[in-house]
Structures are given as C-alpha cells and as structure tokens.
Amino acid sequence: MEYNKKVTEHFLHPHNLGRLPKYNYTAEAANPTCGDAVKFYFDVDSKSERIEKVGIEVLGCGAAIASCSVASEMLTGKTLTEAKKISNQAIVDELGGLPSEKINCSLLVEQAVGRVKINK
After folding, report:
1. Are strands 37-44 and 117-118 parallel, antiparallel or unpaired?
2. 31 lies in which domain range?
3. Catalytic site residues?
4. What SS3 class is residue 49?
5. Could you report the per-residue pLDDT of 4-31, keeping only the tens digit for each?
6. Would you give the DSSP letter of residue 91?
7. Strand extents, DSSP E, 1-120
8. What is the pLDDT of residues 20-74, one digit of tens each?
9. CATH number for the domain including 29?
C-alpha cells in the first residue's frame, strides 16, 4: 500500500506528539478491530474558548498516525464546538487522500473529538 507524500510526512514526523504539560480537556477513541487508539490533550483558553495547543498520543498504523497528526493542526485555534464539526472527510482531504481501506483511521479522529471531555 502506498501513501502520498503528505501522509508519509505526517507518519514519519508526526506533529504535536505527546501529552501536553498543561491541558484541560481530553478526547479519546479506539478501534477494537484493528487496535488503533488515540488520545488528544487540549489546552483551551478559558476566555476565548479556543484550543491553544494540542497534544496527541496515538498507537496505530501509518494512516492513523498521519490522521491524528494533521488533525492536531486542524484543531488548533478552533473552539471545541468548531472542533467537533471536523469530519473524517475533512481530515482525508487535508491529507490529500487515504486508501479506501484506511478511511477508518480518519473516523477514529472524528469519534475521539466528538467525545471531548473536561479534565478535572
């Protein structure tokens, strides 16, 4: 299976990898069928309600890692309400496409972000 240049770049050099030292929201999801899992850490400004920083922990294939990496960039600067509206298709489009058998990797991101919860 071949990935395009952007997917490969995000897989080999994922952006925003790791837990943030300071975060107030998290979001996570897992796919029990393939074993992919992701956890997002969000530092959300209390006044603007915008995501200032995103950290990711991801376990999965190249497409899962690339999807989470590009999503972390797409989420930065958005409100949580705006973030929840980012679809898996928007992630696929931002990556320049994914093989059809790897679309589930972008769905993992959509599922996680749809479950954002405050970290107490």
Report:
1. unpaired
2. 5-118
3. 34, 105
4. coil
5. 999 999 999 999 999 999 999 999 999 9
6. H
7. 25-30, 37-44, 51-59, 117-118
8. 999 999 999 999 998 999 999 999 999 999 999 999 999 999 999 999 999 999 9
9. 3.90.1010.10
